[in-house]
Specification:
By secondary structure, this protein is of the alpha/beta class. The chain has helices at 13-20, 26-37, 41-51, 54-78, 86-107, 110-118, 132-140, 183-198, 214-222, 262-273, 280-284, 289-310, 315-333, 339-346, and strands spanning 120-125, 158-164, 167-173, 201-207, 228-233, 251-253. It binds guanosine-5'-triphosphate and magnesium ion.
Length: 353
Amino acid sequence: MLENGARLALPGEFTKRAFLNGRIDLAQAEAVIDLIHSRTELALAAANEQLAGKLSHRINQLRDEMVKSLAHIEAHIDFPDEDIAPETKDQLASRLDRGVVFMLELLRTANEGQILRRGIRAAIIGRPNVGKSSLLNQLLGRDRAIVSPIAGTTRDTIEETADIRGLPVVLVDTAGLREAGDDIEIEGIRRSRATLATAELILQVFDATEPQTAADRSYLAEFAGKNRILVRNKVDLPGRLELPAAGTAPVIDVSCVTGEGLERLKDSIKESIWSGEIKAEMLEVMINARHQDALKRALKALQQSLQALRAGETLELVAMDLRIAVSAVGEIVGQTSTEDLLDSIFSQFCIGK
Ligand SMILES: Nc1nc2c(ncn2[C@@H]2O[C@H](COP(=O)(O)OP(=O)(O)OP(=O)(O)O)[C@@H](O)[C@H]2O)c(=O)[nH]1
Ligand SMILES: [Mg+2]
């Protein structure tokens, strides 16, 4: 077929056409990307809400309110003889203020939105043979990594996404930390450390059957400042390793052989990423990084406009900042967009779609 002049669809072409035809707006088009990439049911539910237009609806309401205020102010600029009455000015100010409050509310969803879309990276670290790969397999629910009684089994980092209480958690199994035996292990340990630097959560695994070593103590101290959970593995065997109360880090006892303690560990992981309940209404609007950037600019401009209005500055000045705010909010749904912006969004698609 291709030889007859047909061609393959470009990435995002169908969705882009739907956007250009006005059938969906930009936030909805982005929801299609989120749908494709969503890795948990929860992430999928959030993407569906956005595709249904829940976010767009609120953004349009916000924008409409600001456009009304702008029209009002511009009318006064056009007829400078008519002074703006104090009560009208108060009304305008409180309308703009509602916009500020609303933007702040939306901005608070950015963090959760980021977690659901991108997931968080959790590094599994510890001395060789403590059961890091066993833990990865247990949390994934399948045998992904090789487990063996030989210390130094895992030599390269292994990344897999697990669905933990609805949250996508990118688990990274790492080579056991120790004085390396050979060049491959040196490189493996270097990668373990590089993983650690980018991880948002650390699962620091210990072997419950062995007394604490100097290495344990040094790793305990080394990662003290990180968001971490101390996992005491192999509690099916006798002998209990004493772990010092490590500040705020929870200590969870597990056995990767019997499965004991794993549900508690999952709760603890969820809790360390997302405190509190995951409520259905939270899924309705979860802004992404682009929305966050646009909203931050809009908020700043709106606050300046409000300040100018309250300080009795000229209405031209008030209108100027308000126009910036309207335009920035419009970027979210694609009311105001540039070709560069569209390219960067639609290039995130797979071919077609
Ligand atoms: N009894 C018992 N054995 C376990 C448990 N978890 C892991 N093991 C055993 O401990 C050994 C090491 O497990 P791995 O998961 O390969 O350990 P690792 O930390 O990934 O080791 P390296 O990759 O060498 O750093 C294997 O023989 C596992 O079967 C557990 O909870 N209980
Ligand atoms: Mg391993």
